[in-house]
Amino acid sequence: MNSKDLFERAKKVSPGGVHSPVRSFSSVGGTPVFFSHADGAKMWDVEGKDYIDFCLSFGPLLFGHRHPDIARVVHDTADLAWTFGACEPYSLELAEFITEKIPWVDKIRFVSSGTEAVMSAVRVAKAVTGRKKILKFDGCYHGHLDSLLVKAGSGLAGESSSDSAGIGEDIIRNTLVVPLDDENLLEKVIRTEGEDIALVAIEPLPANYGLLIQRKEFLQKIVSLTKAYNIPLLFDEVISGFRVGFGGMAGELGIEPDLVCYGKIIGGGFPVGAYAGKAKFMDFVSPQGPVYQAGTLSGNPFGMRAGLAVLKKAYTENPYTTLENSNQYFTQEMIGLLNKYAYWDNFEWEAITKASLFWIKQKTEKEVRAISSIPEGHKQKYARIFHAILKFGVYLAPSGYEVGFLSTEHTHSILGETLNRIESGLKQEFLK
User: Fold this and answer.
1) Is 151 in the active site?
2) Fewer Cβ atoms within 10 A, N terminus or C terminus of the chain?
3) Active-site annotation holds for 141
């Protein structure tokens, strides 16, 4: 059994052979690796080769794969129940913990994914405001909800096109798309359309199209405009929530959004999402209010108990400074190796970092805060690096536009081993 044979089999029974597009390696080329098990900072493929993992299932594994403290909770849960489809105390305990620790969350509803969370939050905002338009930012990803899979069309704010087949023109017309890091265009669109906008949605730390760290002034401008026009503000913290710090970006910025979406870390590695926020919005959700949303597996005991174990551990141990320091050390050393071996004319690598997240890219004179500023050729150069170090057992996200993550299991020893593997891969690829 090997990855190539498994992928050929998978393509016969699943679209593209995968159950989420980025897994197909379509962005980097080649055959995706099929993994059989994982532990700590490593994963093993079906042939037994180990890889040091910096994808970490795209973020939820703050304490690495199968951390013993979390594993004990998961094993205990298996002896209790797998699913109820009924009321249970475990979602209550997690909800109480989050609402107690996060001041801007009065109430929370658990779902099974970040997409489902955002979809529900959008519905709530439309119901509360009676408006129909959504404003989003080009370069932010909010799952595969139709209205938020719309991108800037002509490049002008407010003029949009579909980023996927199957999305109707009416939905496209009701989605306003504004570039990141452009207060003037944002203000122009809101002044023109504000009375019809039901929600402004943003990743306060855009991390799905590179790591596009926004200026605090820009985010504060969004806050002031939404307040001036009485527009609900949604922070999509599916990635950044409990990852950049316990309070996420909202806590770091001192901004209290009306609605917030969480995922990834709050499920401890299980499929959990949540939408939450001020009571005036959440009280609109059924059965208390008129906005219908339901889910058979919402509040699944595995995700609720594992998620609570992760959040309690994060709250009491506060690993964020250590993770940031490890990230700084690792990325600086990695960039040194890339600039030593992965050489192109007039090209230099750099790492954009935030807390335990990183993104490697071509060095630019100005900070990249919008997708229009990402250098040409980034995808192809990243793909070459990706495969060079993949051969030596370093697993980054299989796309140059996805970010990397560290966990507490990425110890100094593991990072040293990683750097040795990276150097071996780069030597083999570039010193031929």
Assistant:
1) no
2) C
3) yes
Query: Catalytic pick from 51, 90, 141, 275?
Result: 141
Alpha carbons 342 and 344: distance in angstroms, whole number: 7
Asked if 242 and 191 touch (Cβ cutoff 8 Å), the reply is no
pLDDT, tens digit, 9 for 90 and up, residues 87-140: 999 999 999 999 999 999 999 999 999 999 999 999 999 999 999 999 999 999
Strands (E), 208-364: 233-236, 259-263, 273-277, 349-354, 357-362
> What is the bridge-based pairing of β-strands 150-152 and 160-162?
antiparallel
CA–CA dist 407, 319 (Å, integer): 9
Question: Which pair of tokens denotes residue 333?
Answer: 């050393």
For tokens 């089999």, the residue is: 9
Q: How far apart are CA 324 and CA 333, in angstroms?
A: 14
> Which member of 45, 182, 236, 258 is catalytic?
236
Domains along the chain with CATH numbers:
3-62+319-430 (3.90.1150.10), 68-317 (3.40.640.10)
Tokens standing for residue 87: 């009321």
Q: Where do runs of H (alpha helix) occur along 135-233?
A: 169-173, 183-193, 216-228
**Measuring CA to CA, how many Å separate 230 from each of 19, 126, 178, 224?**
39, 13, 19, 10
Q: How many Cβ atoms are within 10 Å of 163's Cβ, its own excluded?
A: 17
Q: Among this protein's residues, is 292 annotated catalytic?
A: no
Give Cα 146 to chain centroid, integer Å.
18
- Three-class secondary structure of residue 50 per DSSP: strand
Please name the amino acid found at residue 144. Answer: H
For the chain, state the CA radius of gyration: 22
In DSSP notation, 136-163 reads EEET----S-GGGSEEESSSSTT-EEES
In whole angstroms, what is the distance from residue 416 CA to residue 277 CA? 42
**In 212-230, which positions are buried (b, 16+ CB within 10 angstroms) versus exposed (e)?**
bbbeeebbebbeebbeeee
Helix (H, G, I), strand (E, B) or coil at 245: coil
Contact status, residue 105 vs residue 81, Cβ threshold 8 Å: no
The tokens describing 4, both together, are 């190539």
Kindly give, in sequence order, each residue whose CB lies less than 8 Å from that of residue 233, ignoring residues fewer than 6 positions away.
Answer: 199, 200, 202, 222, 223, 226, 257, 258, 259
Helix (H) or strand (E) holding 110: strand 107-111
Tell me which residues of the chain have a pLDDT lower than 70.
146, 149-164, 166-168
Residue recorded with tokens 């990276």 = 422
